[in-house]
Amino acid sequence: MRRRRPRGVLDGGVPAHTVRTPAAPRRPHRIDVLIAGGGLLCGLLLWTLHLYGGPPLFGLPPSLTLVALAAMSGAELMRRTAPMAALAVAGLALTLDICSGTLVATVLMFTDVVYAAVLYGGPAAARRIPLYSVLLTFLATITLAALWHDPQVVIVSIVIALGTIAPAWTGVIIRDHRDAAQAARLRAEQTALLAEMDRVQAVARERARMARELHDVVANHLSAIAIHSTAAQTIDDPAATRDALGVIRENSVQGLAEMRRLIGLLRDAKAADGGDGPAATPTLEGLEALITQARTNGARSGLSFVLDTPRATPRLVAPVELAAYRIVQESLTNALKHAEPGEVLVRLAQDGDGPLTVTVRSPYADRPGPRAPGSGAGLVGMRERIALLGGEFEAGPRSGPAGKVWLVRAALPASKEEQRR
Q: How many C-beta neighbours within 10 Å does residue 40 have?
């Protein structure tokens, strides 16, 4: 069965189960070895100096305190690798130590094992050990008070609390701080990942936008150059060749100017922000010049171009006007490359505050190949432009009263509500 991916990993949230206790190492940590060795040496020194708690209970020999000391040192070695096993061994060693003489070193190492069990144990251990330590201290206090009617019971209870409650709750505090630091580090890594993803997506969007602009700016002029250079090579007429070379020169100059304007925009951030610089965003006011240029380029192909626009076209936001202009430009370029001789109709219509509808209709040609080579990126670019604005786009052959035509239709949202977005 496939494991489900934890929720909240990339949405800025850090679920509790993603902050996990680090995996226990297989070998004792060097700090644990130092603690175990230091505790063992201190205990042996105290034993040598006869500095232990009191007489043994139940007639046990005092030498058993050394056994308890050695067991407690072994528990210290397991404080990270097996914290719960270490706590069990430490509990038995402490019981033996209290019954046989009580070395301070053994008691101090027991408090460290309790602390380590909370810090390095599982989540269940971290929740239960502090509660059990409080319960154990309470029961021990009640038992001592019932069996030993002496004010020193209070002092003994405080000592028991310092050996159980204090290390357990200290481990809880340290564990909470560690988990909070891990959660903060995870959030920082997720933030960095999201920022990198946003950067990559922004770069990809900008590359796609530049590719569309470069295609739309260059393809129109280069298509005209390719068509007329082919005509100049195939027609043995000095006058026709001279006219074709004139069109080629005009398109070369205009294409070079468009390229310089676009490069200037890319290099000059001030111009891109609306400062002084080249105006690189065409508007619908430039459609007349676009149609005039298309008439010049398509004259020898038997194409005529007609522009049908409303008498008063309201000013639209820049992205909408740019998209409409580029759609007409690319459609005219495709007509020059593919259309049969006939009329190419460019129509713009808008009903009140409704969408701006751009329609380009050209005679459909079922020819084996275009007049000039193409990459097919024009239709893709037009679809991308319309999709970015949330409009509708269709392109393809249609049958009508005048025969079969190639129809490009785009509906661009141009209402006031869209303009405010």
A: 20
